[in-house]
Amino acid sequence: MRRSFSYRVFSVANHLFLVLISLLCILPLLHILAVSLSSKAAATANIVKFWPVELTFDAYRLTIENSFFIGSLWNSIERTVLGTLISMVLCITAAYALSKENRVFPGRTFYSWFFIFTMLFSAGLIPSYLVVTNLGIKNTIWALVLPGAVSVYNMVLMLNFFRGIPKDLEEAAFMDGAGHFVTLWKVYLPLSMPSVATLSLFSMVGNWNAWFDGLIYLNNAQDYPLATLLQQLTAGIDMSTSSAVNADALKNIAQRTVKAAQIFLSMIPILIVYPFLQRYFVQGMTLGSVKE
Amino acid sequence: MSTALKSKGFIALALLPALILFLVFVIIPIFWSAYYGFFEWKGLGTAKFIGFGNYNEIIHDRIFWNALLNNLLLVASAIVGQIPVALLLALVLLRNSLFSKFIRSAVFMPMVLSTVVVGLIWGYIYHPQFGLANFILKEIGLGSWTRAWLSEPHINMLAITIPINWSNIGPYMVIYIAALQNIPSEIGDAAEVDGARGWRKLIYVTLPIIWSTVIVTLVLCISGSLKAFDHVIVMTNGGPAHTTELLATYMYNNTFHVYRYGYGSAVSTVIMLVSALLIAVNYAVTKRRSA
Questions:
Q1: Which pLDDT score, from 0 to 100, does residue A253 have?
Q2: Which residues of B touch A180 (CB under 8 A)?
Q3: What chain A residue is nearest to B26 in terms of C-alpha separation?
Q4: Which of A32, A124, A277 lies closest to B121 in CB terms?
Q5: Of the four listed, A53, A228, A251, B69, which is most buried by Cβ atoms within 10 Å?
Q6: Digit-coded pLDDT (tens) for B31-55
Q7: Distance between CA atoms of A63 and A249, rounded to whole angstroms?
Q8: For residue A91, which residues of chain B lie inside 8 Å, CB to CB?
Q9: Gap from B247 CA to chain A (nearest CA, Å)
Q10: Nearest to A105 among B11, B18, B130 (CB)
């Protein structure tokens, strides 16, 4: 290939442009990290850019010592584990059923459309809220994990993966006298571990990041998951009315540097799994498209 | 065929939990929402049937129209700001070199962050006194450009589109890369032999092949922009004076702050209708173009 002068200029400009774009994506996170590691005075005097000013770990110390933060961290972990488990069991069983042909499972097409319909249309918030209230699961962890447990997107990916498994394997299992349950458990699942891992990861991240359900379904600030707590601290909503909350502790964690520390801490689990997330997201996309 | 019978039982059983949860938490609420839209109701006590009263009020509600306008602004900004940028990046970053992998990772990053984190980060950046945005403007001698980004009317909605686009370009880029990598290389080679290069190749060969993917992302863009909610709640909560109100935040504020459940339900039904309408329009337009 000929590499003319203008080609090289273009190439350099191109690379510069791309570096600029990626900086735009990363610098905001760096800024938050810098604020969280700066002194309180520096952060409110507007001199923190991308590097800490008057480096201190005070914000992190205050955060970690705060029982409020630790409590919500625990709530988040609990919700993520339970939510992921439930959602994976539902996803796998439903996808298995829907992966069968019409011959085996007559209503398949109808049920598939039933699920896909809601990928575009979600109901209003109000009726969902009323459903949760009427079921009596408000203020419990079930209000967080049940309503969003069925992810149609995950189900479609899983379904397509199941479809890709050769029919012969299933038939061999049936020949040996296995029913559907055993076939799913002993044949399909072991073969789909990569997909299961991928979707679990998506589900975990979704659960970890969700905050709005906590806000409307939970009345007590002590029950909030981390993401909800972060939102509430910034919204400046007075939480001292809720019992067992130390007003001083609240004031501490609402500081600018401390809030930044909390934002950053809440991102850490996501950043750790990030490399996998990105790769699997791509695989998930191709997984879904190939078999359509 | 006793095995077959047994197996049908299991299939039904396997589908049942997901089906019930879905029915209870997703499908029934859709109809409930439509139903409550015809009532005047405070969430407690008896609901009073008022026919199309709520809808009539919506038509004359200036805040509603403003919210709808803001949503349409989001749709426009998503279509202009997310799709082309994502496509451009995908085309440039198609190769699996280390450099392009790094850039891809960076661009995809904001997508995995919680919307509350994204909102808070940009809240920090936009802060009128301590914010990075104003600070940088002052540093480079554009002090007169500094703004109270999230509170000045006309500017605040535009300021809000930036974080939303920021966090949504990544996934679209990845979708396009996947679609582009699925194109057999023979097609590209054949096009070049026929003299199609650069822009011509992009417009006459590449784009038509991935057109169905583009349509899917357009639909996602539209429905996503109409449901937009989180970022605004975190950054401005629809204020000041409803200038950044979106349909969803307006519905939320009506329901959970002023306790007008009936009116909020009517608004959410309207959101669904608008969304269906826009998606239909999108299909009509893109279908014709691909024909």
A1: 56
A2: 6-7, 10-11, 14
A3: A123
A4: A32
A5: A228
A6: 887 888 888 887 777 778 888 888 8
A7: 9
A8: 18
A9: 11
A10: B11
Backbone angles phi, psi at B40, to 5 degrees: -100, 115
- Can you identify the CATH homologous superfamily of domain A58-290? MetI-like (1.10.3720.10)
CB contact under 8 A, B36 and A126: yes
Report the CATH number at residue B278.
Answer: 1.10.3720.10
Backbone angles phi, psi at B184, to 5 degrees: -60, 140
**CB contact A94 to B (< 8 Å):** yes
- Single pTM value for the model: 0.82
- Domain ranges in chain A? 5-44, 58-290
A258 CB within 8 Å of a chain B CB: no
Q: Is residue B162 part of a domain?
A: yes
Neighboring chain A residues of B110 at a CB cutoff of 8 Å: 25
B91 within 8 A of A10, measured Cβ to Cβ: no
Containing domain of residue B126, as a range? Answer: 57-290
d(CA B224, CA A283) in angstroms, rounded, equals 22
Segment A159-206, tens digit of pLDDT: 888 888 888 888 888 888 777 888 888 888 888 887 888 888 889 988
Q: Does A270 touch chain B (CB under 8 A)?
A: yes
Q: Which tokens is B140 given?
A: 């480079």
- Which tokens in the block code for residue A244? 């067992």
Q: Do B15 and A97 touch (CB under 8 A)?
A: yes
Q: Is the dihedral of CA A169, A194, A282, B197 positive or negative?
A: negative
pLDDT of residue B291: 43
CA B255 remoteness from chain centre: 22
Residues 6+ apart with CB under 8 A from B42: B259, B260, B261
User: Which segments of chain A have a pLDDT < 50?
Assistant: 237-245, 289-292
Q: Count structural domains, chain B.
A: 1
Question: Which segments of chain B have a pLDDT < 70?
Answer: 1-7, 287-291
